[in-house]
Amino acid sequence: MKKKLLAVLLATTMVASLAACGNSSAPAADSSAPAADNAAAPADEAAPADNAAADTSAIDTSEHVKITYMTTGESPTGTKEKYEEMMAELNKILTEKVNAELDIYFISWTDYLSNYNLTLAQMDGTVDLVGTASDWLDAWPNAKNGAFLELSEEMLQTYAPQTWASVPAENWELCKYNGEIYLMPEDNYAQWTNHGFAYRLDWAKEAGLEDGVHSWEDLTTYFRYVKEAYPDITPWDSDGTQYATMVGGWISSHSDYVSIDGINSGAMWGGTKDDLYTVYSPYVTDTDSLVEFAKLMKEWDEIGVWKTDVLNNTTSTNRDDYRIGKVAAEQHHTQTWTDLVSHTPANTIYQDDEDADTGFFYFGEESQNVTALSITHGAMAISAGSKNPERALMVYDLLRNDPECYKLFCYGIQGVSWDVNEEGLRITPEGYNQDTDNIGGTTNYWWGRNDDLEIKDATRNWDAIDKLYAEYDSIKIEYPYGQFVADVDNIQSYISNINEIHTNYMKQIAYGKYSGTAEEIVAEYQEALKAAGIDTVTEELQRQFDALYK
Amino acid sequence: MKKRKSDLTFFQKVKRSRTLLLMCLPAVVFFFAFNYMPLPGIWVAFVKYNYRDGIFGSKFIGLQNFEFLAQSGKLLSLTKNTILYNLAFILLGNFLAVFVAILLNEMRSKWFKKVSQTLMFLPYFISQVLVGILVFNLLNYDTGFVNGILTSLGLERWQPYSDPNVWPVLLVIIYLWQQTGYNSVVYFAAIMGIDGEMMEAAKVDGANGFQRIRYIILPSLKPTIVILLLFALGGIVKGNFGLFYNIVGTNPILYNTTDIIETYVYRATMTDFNFSTASAVGLYQSIIGFVIVMTVNWVVKKIEPDYSLF
Amino acid sequence: MAKNKDMDLMESGAKVKLGTSDKIIRGFGYVFVTLYCVCCVIPFLIIVSSSFTSESVIRAEGVQIIPKDITLEAYNMVCKSGGIWWSYLLTICLTLFGTLIGLSIIAMTGYALQRKDFPFRNAISFYIYFTSLFSAGLAPYYLLMVQTYHLKDNYLAVLLPLLMSSWLIILMKNFVKAIPHEITESGKIDGAGDFKIFTALILPMLKPALATIGLFLALGYWNEWYQSSLFLSSKVAVKPLQYTLYEIVNKTDALKNSVAGQFINLADIPQESVKMANAVLATGPIVLLYPFVQKYFISGITVGAVKG
After folding, report:
1. Could you tell me if A422 lies within 8 Å of chain C, comparing CB atoms?
2. Which of A199, A331, A472, A495 has CA atoms 20 to 30 A from the CA of B85?
3. Which CATH number fits domain C82-238: 3.30.390.10, 1.10.10.10, 3.40.50.1000, 1.10.3720.10?
4. CA C306 – CA C220 distance, rounded (Å)
């Protein structure tokens, strides 16, 4: 009995000390929270610094605060040492300029959406700057649900003057909901995330496509050829998840459809280039087109473009296989292609075969239908629970516009993690060790990159990339629905069910795994959509459109 | 000298059983802190959650969060799948566990018992993700192990991932494979607790193996079996997400026969993250489980009060 | 002890002849159990040998039962990520303390609840059982732990919630019920208090039950990663084992997809084999716990204290 009591006592003591351990490794995030200057924009900082680079003289920065920046990503382990060095350098500058220091709060990729929202829900000052995106991080729903602080024009002008000045007025409009600005957009960074197929240009030429692949029919020819000439490889070892981009790509290749972002992942509603403000869903109206698609996909399945059990092929690593020449195509967006087309050490196809080249067949090429990326695809917001919103804005302003801070944050310490060659392009310096020095992939700063300060990566194939970008620029339209923040409260349940139907049917259709004829499966799909209330949603969206745009 | 319980006042009862009460205290506090304290938060299923307003300040919207489940038209089939699979798991799982425990008990070789118990336990440790990978490696059409054997025997290949009808059986087999070792531990311990004298006496009396099992072991195990069954009933509309999600994955061809409530909700809310909907579904599951358990427990109490849960 | 197949030696010394039905049961038992064990071992063997197989072989041919192209690359990758030994230590600590504390509480509660003369047992049983039926969901639980209990980034957030569950308590209650009430009564006659009866008389007879529940508790702690993912942020240096291993796989994924991926020959980064290595590293130690605990099961029939 005594022994047991002793054991229990011992255990409790140890547990208590564990608790102490656990606590001490957590930085006292609250200790730096100043009691004063909380919510209201300070009235005495009258002079709006409209062109001053860092006129913080009128602003009270006497108290040293810690600003926490929340982003998705894994916290550094191998690169931890160099990461901490970089942060120390960065914080030196930040302290000097605005008497603040930056701390990164990582939301691990495991269950990231859940943990991201839970952290936002804490509302206790744990995070100040929040990286967000209107397409994959629910920027607008979160703004509507009170997670983000309203950023008044005065606040932005005072505390983030450079950002304020560099973003044009019409772009600020697109960051508003109910008249209030919630997001600071990454609008000065060239990025194309429109989808298509990256393919082996050299193999396409062998197949008789002199100019490469420029249509879905060309693709079919290409795949047939690859299957015959290179029988040991799977042409496209898909993992079964690209159904939405495939069908979406087909639709935009055969019509003038412009989709609305952020309503659902299938981007099922939108307008046309000629008539932007009449809402429709091509998945309901373009029946013939969908039947064509279903037939073609069945053909691809029969050719053997993908593995038979493609829908369960979760361990596939197609992109890596492409780099080493084990597959013939990768379906993803332009940004990925800029990587695949470049002669980096990882892309061994270029070392093994001097003729190797990668082309990009972008969806919409046939119809010249390409929409530029919405400016809020990456944006920075301020948590509504932040205790230091003003200082947070000042820190962001520096990160985005100050060359020193920008380079440190995006690339690391010069000479260690990166350097510049004679042409002014970014290279890896002597003695660079991938495992310990790679800072660029750590801070995940996808919410404020700035082409004015970007140093181009020397390993990228800028000739090919610039050429494609120029082509896009000549035919693109700007994303037209930036101002539209859908109010989905009453139709959310319909949308959730429609999502489910779309996913389930499209998986079978896009991989040719349906039974029966193409007409039958498309009809079944459309009936299910109707039963789930797709017309109700379309009508509701139209109503909201009319209120906003007419 | 028996005082009738009804003669004692509440405080007298407390005083008499104070040691026992104290012994229960840590558990009571634990459950209060971790299970009852969050319960009021169930309110989140009835509001439109706003970060600034918190759970209790957010706008009340009644049953709206439950709508998407109801409107999907799938609610019935999902509930049916969930319940049927769970019934199979519970009944077959317990049957197999008892079966294995009894068999093992009959073995005399200590070495064999030890080794086999450890080996049987192994599948439990394999994470669901790995199980999914292993099953895929076993069954897939192009490179699967099973198909490798079939082709070398000159038979046609089998394409299970396109056939929804085989999966109920496959999933139950996988579940049994993974859980039996773990489940049988409870029964094995229970058998260990059976009065040794009874067993000895039975042997001396000439009872053979089957008789021993039928007349001594099984009846002694009955309370344990009933309690485990009853307990499992409460969770009959829940659980096993890991198993289904990792093995079936997101292959819609198989959904008709393999989709359960949790996998459906997970997919539906994956791109539209919503605390309220998740809570609403949890509440739906809890209520059904509650009704089922209360009913069955009441029935059991009438038949054999000793076996009821409470 | 003579190894005579027809004789069965019991502890009391009585010799009983084996009947054919016993032989049938035993024979069948050996066959069935052996087959089942083979089914259990093979997947595990596959995992172990795949962890030693090079990534390219796994990608090309799937997992192997005999390692081909043997390499320690996957293990290197895992150990290189650092901190794994600390994670082991942390998890072992958590498991030990959690199991000890939890087991004590569960045993006490289980005993009290099966005492027929305890007037509050039904109420408390229901109180405990009810918690397994209803739960408020993720958000209220998370906010309670973080905002009210301030347990974010605190190891207690992992230790405390796993201390017990209603299932374990009910299970324990059931085991204790099997102990004859005469024992408690004899203790009372001797003048002992309830707690003394519990510790001196009941506990020694509960060995199989304690071993079982202790095992389940320990497994719960060992396998836990969910609480870690919710409450231990990147600010915590050392995380429990399963979560650390999970993160290692994720980091490999993230590394490949990030901009950084371009500088390394990605075919070399072990990924599938890392998952296998993880499984081996995670399971290894706990598999050894089970034989240790087994002796309480196999010790034979120990109950026999009640005479007359």
Report:
1. no
2. A495
3. 1.10.3720.10
4. 35
